[in-house]
Structures are given as structure tokens and as C-alpha cells.
Write a sequence for this structure.
């Protein structure tokens, strides 16, 4: 992660589609979200559908946004996504998830 350039490998069309997928999941299932010094933390309602969609999106993000660390923690009633990156990466991640 330390030497990975801070750049998205998606075309503008692909990025818009991905942003739409995130916005849909967030509007349907996010319980809370907060900026952290190194990125973002989002808590989602736990359900099979939410976990499946979140797993898929995180796997895609790990491929195109390797400058950030994408971590999922499962709890009994929620799924927490934490995204961390160095300074410039944190700003990019925060911008992606700002409402």
C-alpha cells in the first residue's frame, strides 16, 4: 500500500457505475458513517444481501483502489467497513463516500 499510486484504474463510466452501486447500498443499509484520520468507517445493517453486495464491492475496490486498505468486520447485527489510506488516499476515500 505504501508505494501504490493514488489513482483509480476505472474509466469515468465505470467509476460512475461503481459510485452508483455504493450509493444504492449506502442509502438502503448504512447505519452510520464517519470520516477517520486515515479514511472512512461505515456500519451497515447485517443481512445476507447486504453482506454479499458489500463483499463484492470491496473486492472490486481492492483491485482498482489498491492505495487503500479495505477491511470488513462482521458483528451480530451489523457489518463494519473500514477504509484506510495514507494522507492523499484518505482524502480520495472520504470524497468517494461523502453524502
Amino acid at each position: 500500500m505504501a508505494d501504490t499510486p493514488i489513482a483509480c484504474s476505472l474509466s469515468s463510466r465505470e467509476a460512475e457505475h461503481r459510485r452508483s452501486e455504493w450509493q444504492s447500498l449506502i442509502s438502503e443499509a448504512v447505519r452510520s458513517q464517519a470520516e477517520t484520520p486515515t479514511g472512512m468507517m461505515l456500519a451497515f445493517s447485517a443481512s445476507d444481501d447486504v453482506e454479499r453486495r458489500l463483499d463484492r464491492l470491496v473486492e472490486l475496490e481492492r483491485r482498482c483502489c489498491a492505495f487503500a486498505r479495505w477491511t470488513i468486520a462482521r458483528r451480530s447485527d451489523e457489518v463494519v467497513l473500514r477504509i484506510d489510506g495514507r494522507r492523499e488516499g484518505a482524502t480520495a476515500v472520504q470524497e468517494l463516500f461523502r453524502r
In short: The helical segments are 12-29, 48-64, 87-97. The beta strands are 30-36, 39-45, 68-74, 78-85. The longest strand covers residues 78-85. The domain at 12-97 is CATH 3.10.28 (Endonuclease I-creI).
